[in-house]
Amino acid sequence: MGVAAAANGSGDPSSGDATARAHDEALWRNLFVLVEAGEVVPIVGRELLQVGTPPTHLYATLAQGVAKRLGVAFDPGEPVKDPLNTVACRYLEQSDDTRQIYIAVFQEAQALSNLGVPEPFRQLAEIDRFKLFVTTIFDASLETAINTVRFGGLPRTDVRSFAPKRVKDLPAPLESLTVPTVFHLLGRISPTEDFVVTEEDALEFVHSLQQALPATLFTELYQKDLLVIGCRFPAWLVRSILRLARPSRLRLSSGRTVFVVDTGAREDQTLIEFLRTFKTRTEVFERGSPIEFVNELHARWLARSKSAPATEVPASPLPAKGAIFVSYASEDRAVAEAIAQTLNQAKLDAWLDRDQIMAGDRFAERIVDGIRRSDLFIPVLSRHCLVPEERYFRKEWAAAFDKATGLPSSIQFIFPIVIDDLPYQQEELPLTLRQLSWYSLTGGLTPEFVTAVKERYRKNQRD
Fold first, then answer.
1. Contact 35, 16 (CB under 8 A)
2. Rounded distance between C-alpha atoms, residue 384 and residue 406, angstroms
3. Which residue in 10, 102, 172, 185 has a CA-CA distance of 20 to 30 Å to 158?
4. What is the pLDDT of residue 233?
5. Are strands 225-229 and 181-184 parallel, antiparallel or unpaired?
6. C-alpha 68: how far from chain center
7. Buried b vs exposed e over 39-76: b needs ≥16 C-beta within 10 Å?
8. Is 61 in contact with 51 (CB distance < 8 Å)?
9. Within 13 Å and on the Cβ side, how many CA atoms surround 180?
10. Residue 417, SS3 per DSSP
11. Could you give the CA distance from residue 149 to residue 146 in angstroms, rounded to a whole number?
């Protein structure tokens, strides 16, 4: 599939095939260099929600069920650009109870998983250089694809979302993310109006984003090249998203590129001219559908991986028998690494999984093995341990508590360290952890700290 004409270059998709092919290949080469370097953040949308043979659009099926619930007419074969928006607008012509729209979508969406995972999402998940995915869809099909491909179906992907009254930013900068992360830019499915169904919803979300940007997310988007695939935005929304993703006026943008693969953008020549006129460093893939683009991206990625020299990177080895296991929230990684380095310099065998359990490893098996091989378990405690969502450090705590219950009472296996002003009796912490004495590191990594760890460690080994 030949694709691509540059929105800010001189390539003309109607010119000779040789010129078009040469331009296509140059664009692909640039894209792949950036992807391999981890410099690209994909922004994916509804045009990729195709499942089955013949292909069925998930949201067309969803719209049919929602129409039934709301009592409006809708034929999934109707040639409409946005089926859910069409159904919602028809309902609003006869009722002003807007909440019923979101409740109906939420109820119908529960069955979407039965239709399977969209193949384009599965293919994107296999490109392991993609660590952060931004999506404009509201359902869970993207994170399901990532969990299926990378973790054998285990719920390991971190999921974040934006809504006008609920801003959930990234937990850390991109380079510090320890698991793949999906950010729902236009909201995540719920029974409330916290996700985009209609074009008016999209307008409200963009307005709210201008008022309260998720700072860490957009800092990362400013610093990365973006690959926008199949979002099916109206032209005004394309312009808005591109502007939000850049720190200065579009005509002043430099350095980073936005690659756009979107039927709506391609069909809107006014938008193409806008991007060309203001030299926005935007490359629009003008030939081939978003699904065809992902097929080729995936095929080229696999071919490139097979032709590259074998440089398999192993997971961090398990700790040596009798080591010190350091457990931490991903936000505290830098502190945890400093603790491990200090202890290792003192000839203590401290270990932490800097990869936070690499893709493909069996999490429970690996963690339990690592903790069972250790003679001391150090949980690094901070306010980051109070985050409400599921996190891996809590599973490490549970495995450590389980080991501790089988040890003699003379062995104090768990040695908690607190690094900030986390309240000692915080109810969100396990009672077993609150009943232990904590060692405070708010004064820094002192010789006294090393001595305290060494004494506890040596005592456990003797006993």
1. no
2. 29
3. 102
4. 65
5. unpaired
6. 33
7. ebbbbbbbbbbbbeeeeebbbbbbbbbbbebbebebeb
8. no
9. 30
10. strand
11. 5
Q: Match 């409409």 to its residue by tokens.
A: 80
Q: Using CA atoms, how far apart are residues 133 and 124, in angstroms rounded to an integer?
A: 10
Residue 158 has which token pair? Answer: 């971190």
* Tokens of residue 314, six digits: 């192993």
Q: Which amino acid is present at 223?
A: Q
**What's the mean pLDDT when you consider all of the chain?**
81
Which amino acid would we find at residue 380?
V
- Helices 99-109 and 83-92: crossing angle, nearest 10°? 140
Give the closest residue to 130 by CA, choosing from 48, 227, 230.
227
Burial 358-397 (b: 16+ CB within 10 A, else e): bbebebeebbbebbbebbbbbbbbbbbbeeeeebbbbbbb
327 touches 377 (CB < 8 A)? yes
Using the predicted structure, report yes or no on whether residue 37 has a pLDDT greater than 50: yes
Tokens 């950010």 sit on residue: 183
Percent of the chain with pLDDT over 90: 30
| Segments of the chain assigned to CATH 3.40.50.10140 | 323-462
Token pair recorded at residue 126: 């296999």
User: If you ran DSSP here, which 8-state letter would residue 291 be given?
Assistant: H
How far is the first Cα of the chain from the last one, in angstroms, to the nearest whole number?
68
Q: How many CA atoms lie within 13 A of 125 on its CB side?
A: 27
d(CA 119, CA 293): 12
Residue 232 has a CB neighbour count (10 Å cut-off) of: 19
Half-sphere exposure in the Cβ direction for 374 (13 Å, CA)? 33
CATH class of the domain at 323-462: alpha beta
3-state secondary structure of 200: helix
3-state secondary structure of 5: strand
Half-sphere exposure of 399 (CA within 13 A, CB side): 24
Write down the H helix ranges in 230-331.
235-244, 263-267, 269-277, 290-307
Q: What is the pLDDT of residue 183?
A: 95
| pLDDT tens digits, one per residue of 109-120 | 888 777 888 999
Query: Which sign does the torsion angle of CA 10, 32, 246, 213 carry?
Result: positive
Whole-number Å distance between alpha carbons of 290 and 50: 11
CB 330 within 8 A of CB 353: no
**CATH entry, 5-52+116-307, from 1.25.10, 3.30.420, 3.40.50, 3.80.10:** 3.40.50
pLDDT value for 8: 42
